[in-house]
């Protein structure tokens, strides 16, 4: 595929707003997870929570879109000059020539949960949403895309992708196709997901939540830590001197199970192979691979084995979920940002909290950070329904 | 603006009272509903016990998807797919939200994994044994139009054929006061790059402005479902009209021009390839 330039990108995670906070946390091996202090009924687990959202009200003109997810969408948009870069792109290309393609898993469902907790009698006497939460757009998956479109004033194609945890990786592929087909000159991609009861108690019901900070690929790993995050990248057609580019994407389906990975990692292998093929590079060219690596026993084994079959032992591959938690629909953008930071700063993160190697995992899995320049980085994001996406970035 | 084209190889349709595309076409032409339409779709792709347990939204999406593939003569395992839904499954959102208030630790794991927006896409790829890419998107009232654009740009990017599915169900519980959707509705198209003599072709232009109010029979019949904005296209396909306009977001619309295959000159033959 023709490369796409990434001249602006950002992420806001439990490590703080903006990519400097993320880079510093990775470099210093200082994570952002804390004991669960979210909501009224607190499961015994650790979470990656973004500080200050409770006090970060949306500007008054967007008060009808108020909810935790849109607050994080707005906060993340203000970091690393992203909002200004979007306005500059709008002046350059025109508002209708820029697509908004965002990924999420739960969007604003936290606001729906809040409405159910505060039901009051409606006009017909039946339980109804409290007046401040009677906003139809806040209670639908497109809440995120619609809000960001409104907040940026962009008027091109606008889509919210919701393929669970692969959502904000797949937005890169979808945006690349829109630009390639000539339907847009640029695309604001990214994703936002926030902590909410559905996710905490849903993953708990599946038995996938650890009581301790998650330990990806550790022999004693026992589940994930949930997190929240938001991030964006601005994609444009590449010129000759672009330092950072999207080079390939691969998408596949496991065709196996709604919430368990294919035991041989079939879909993961297909997505990674397709991304390499589209980028026109060999597996040995990849300098860093950010793994999906949720720290659940099954996921990590399957992914490590798929990686071992495809890549040489020299690959530095890691999961960064020990720093941020599993940010679900935002994992794709957060970990793409980490892959881009690896390319721009030569910092290859290891794995936080993990110490005991699992024999089922190959030599590619690295616990320690490394520093060296690389040319290509890959990011894996895999979701429920066996929905897989791999991305290749280059510097 | 750019124009995108595709051949419509197969069509699937289900709404309350009109359980397949043939009955929908007959209804558009004659205004008659079939006798004794089933109350719920029964997607053959799923094993019998899964068929009974599947959420209605999943059932309707899989039913129309399989019908479109069958009419196209395409194996479901071969097609990349785009699933568009405005709300996903509001019944499950209602269940999750109510349970989180009453007893959060009793959330059903199955209901939770069925709550993801890509549940239908997931069950489809699992049931079809399909390892091709699938996606699940939402764009409020523009969900089907954006799904159509995504399917067309995937053809533009080199795919031979695509499956596009639009579906929505009913709102239940307190959510019904903010999410205005009732009944069950699904529509699917198998779209391909190569022209075929026996199949209609569509050409899409993206324009500024608001799509006109839909007045077709299907639009009137199932207009209260959140996926109703797709119905002008299905009305046009059923009636043999050559233009349909779809809402494609605030101030945006898709103008779709339909042309018949060379061997299907009669307008009433629209969409009956492999019927």
Descriptive labels:
heterodimer, A: about 400 residues, alpha/beta, ten-stranded mixed β-sheet, three-stranded mixed β-sheet, 11 helices, 17 strands, B: about 280 residues, alpha+beta, eight-stranded mixed β-sheet, 9 helices, 8 strands, disordered C terminus
Protein described:
The complex is a heterodimer of chains A (395) and B (275). With 395 residues, chain A is an alpha/beta fold. Chain A has eleven helices and 17 strands. Chain A has a ten-stranded mixed beta sheet, with helices on both faces. Chain A has a three-stranded mixed beta sheet with strand order 2-3-9, with no helix packed on it. In chain A, α6 crosses α11 and α8 packs across α9. The C terminus of chain B is likely disordered. Chain B has an eight-stranded mixed beta sheet with strand order 3-2-4-5-1-6-8-7, with helices on both faces. Chains A and B meet through α4, β6, α5, β7 and α6 of A and α4, α5, α6, β3 and α7 of B.
List the helices and strands and how they pair.
The complex is a heterodimer of chains A (395) and B (275).
Chain A: E1 4-12, H1 19-28, E2 34-35, E3 46-48, H2 68-77, H3 82-93, E4 98-103, H4 109-117, E5 120-121, E6 127-128, H5 143-152, E7 158-161, H6 167-180, E8 186-193, H7 197-205, E9 226-227, E10 229-237, E11 245-253, H8 266-279, E12 286-290, H9 297-310, E13 316-318, H10 321-324, H11 331-345, E14 347-348, E15 370-371, E16 376-383, E17 387-394
Parallel strand pairs in A: 3-9, 4-7, 4-8, 12-13, 12-16
Antiparallel strand pairs in A: 1-10, 1-11, 2-3, 5-6, 8-10, 11-17, 14-15, 16-17
Helix pairs in contact in A: 2-5, 6-11, 8-9
Chain B: E1 3-15, H1 21-30, H2 48-53, H3 56-72, E2 81-84, H4 90-102, H5 109-114, H6 119-128, E3 134-138, H7 143-156, E4 161-168, E5 185-192, E6 201-208, H8 217-221, H9 231-239, E7 243-247, E8 252-259
Parallel strand pairs in B: 2-3, 2-4
Antiparallel strand pairs in B: 1-5, 1-6, 4-5, 6-8, 7-8
Helix pairs in contact in B: 1-9, 3-6
């Amino acid at each position: 595929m023709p490369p796409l330039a990434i001249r602006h990108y950002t992420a806001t995670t439990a490590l703080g707003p903006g990519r400097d906070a993320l880079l510093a946390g990775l470099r210093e091996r200082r994570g952002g997870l804390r004991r669960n202090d979210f909501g009224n009924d607190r499961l015994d687990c650790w979470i990656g929570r973004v500080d200050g959202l409770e006090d970060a009200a949306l500007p008054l003109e967007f008060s009808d879109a108020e909810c935790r997810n849109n607050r994080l969408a707005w906060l993340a948009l203000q970091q690393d000059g992203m909002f200004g870069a979007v306005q500059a792109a709008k002046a350059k290309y025109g508002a209708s020539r820029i697509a908004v393609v965002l990924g999420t898993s739960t969007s604003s469902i936290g606001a729906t949960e809040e409405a159910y907790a505060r039901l009051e009698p409606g006009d017909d006497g039946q339980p109804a949403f409290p007046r401040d939460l009677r906003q139809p757009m806040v209670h639908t998956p497109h809440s995120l895309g619609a809000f960001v479109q409104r907040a940026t004033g962009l008027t091109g194609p606008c889509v919210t992708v919701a393929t669970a945890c692969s959502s904000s990786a797949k937005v890169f592929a979808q945006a690349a196709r829109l630009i390639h087909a000539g339907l847009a000159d640029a695309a604001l991609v990214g994703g936002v997901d926030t902590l909410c009861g559905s996710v905490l108690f849903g993953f708990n019901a599946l038995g996938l939540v650890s009581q301790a900070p998650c330990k990806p690929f550790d022999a004693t790993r026992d589940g994930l830590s949930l997190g929240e995050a938001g991030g964006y990248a601005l994609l444009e057609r590449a010129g000759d001197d672009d330092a950072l580019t999207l080079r390939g994407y691969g998408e596949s389906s496991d065709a196996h199970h709604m919430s368990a990975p294919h035991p041989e990692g079939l879909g993961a292998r297909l997505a990674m192979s397709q991304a390499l093929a589209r980028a026109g590079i060999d597996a040995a060219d990849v300098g860093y691979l950010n793994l999906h690596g949720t720290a659940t026993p099954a996921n990590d084994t399957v992914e490590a084995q798929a990686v071992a079959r495809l890549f040489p032992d020299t690959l530095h591959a890691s999961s960064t979920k020990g720093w941020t938690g599993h940010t679900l629909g935002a994992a794709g953008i957060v970990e793409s940002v980490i892959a881009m930071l690896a390319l721009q700063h030569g910092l290859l993160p290891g794995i936080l909290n993990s110490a005991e190697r699992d024999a089922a995992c190959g030599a590619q899995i690295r616990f320690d950070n490394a520093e060296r320049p690389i040319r290509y980085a890959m990011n894996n994001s895999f979701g429920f329904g066996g929905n897989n996406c791999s991305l290749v970035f280059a510097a | 603006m750019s124009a995108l084209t595709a051949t419509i190889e197969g069509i699937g349709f289900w709404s309350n009272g009109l359980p397949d595309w043939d009955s929908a076409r007959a209804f558009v032409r004659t205004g008659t509903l079939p006798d004794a339409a089933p109350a719920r779709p029964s997607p053959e792709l799923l094993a019998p016990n899964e068929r009974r347990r599947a959420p209605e939204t999943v059932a309707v999406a899989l039913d129309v998807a399989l019908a479109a593939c069958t009419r196209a003569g395409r194996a479901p395992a071969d097609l990349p797919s785009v699933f568009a839904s405005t709300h996903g499954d509001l019944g499950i959102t209602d269940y999750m939200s109510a349970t989180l208030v009453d007893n959060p630790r009793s959330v059903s794991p199955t209901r939770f994994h069925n709550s993801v927006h890509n549940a239908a896409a997931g069950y489809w790829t699992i049931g079809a044994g399909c390892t091709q890419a699938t996606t699940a998107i939402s764009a409020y009232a523009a969900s089907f139009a954006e799904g159509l654009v995504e399917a067309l740009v995937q053809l533009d990017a080199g795919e031979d054929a695509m499956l596009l599915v639009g579906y929505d169900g009913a709102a239940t519980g307190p959510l019904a006061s903010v999410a205005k959707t009732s009944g069950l509705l699904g529509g699917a198209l198998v779209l391909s790059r190569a022209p075929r003599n026996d199949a209609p072709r569509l050409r899409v232009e993206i324009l500024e402005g608001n799509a006109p109010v839909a007045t077709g029979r299907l639009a009137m019949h199932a207009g209260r479902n959140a996926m109703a904005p797709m119905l002008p296209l299905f009305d046009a396909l059923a009636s043999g009209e050559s233009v349909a306009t779809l809402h494609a977001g605030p101030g945006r619309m898709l103008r779709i021009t339909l042309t018949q295959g060379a061997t299907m000159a009669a307008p009433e033959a629209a969409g009956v390839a492999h019927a």
